[in-house]
Amino acid sequence: MCALLFTVGLLLSSTHHHELADVKTDCVSCHVAGNLLSDLPPVNPVLLAVLLAVAYVLARLPVYSFAPAPSYLIPARQAPPAVTATSC
Q1: Burial of 74 (0-12, 13-18, 19+ CB in 10 A)
Q2: pLDDT tier at 79 (50, 70, 90 boundaries)?
Q3: Among residues 28, 37, 24, which one has the least CA distance to residue 9?
């Protein structure tokens, strides 16, 4: 659904046109399209390597979780009373 909305938005933004007298800075689509190709700031490779190493170590750590025995699922014994031999 999101990809469909994104595609429709791209199609609509690429098919619009302006008159010569219109100011293009007021158009949101033109502003986004003009700034879309701007460069991203550079990333420090050492910082990225440290971040990836920490993420790798944290992902390899075992995860401990306490799972109690399911004693509450076992019903109580409900056998008939024991027959005792009584002499009359």
Answers
A1: exposed
A2: confident
A3: 28
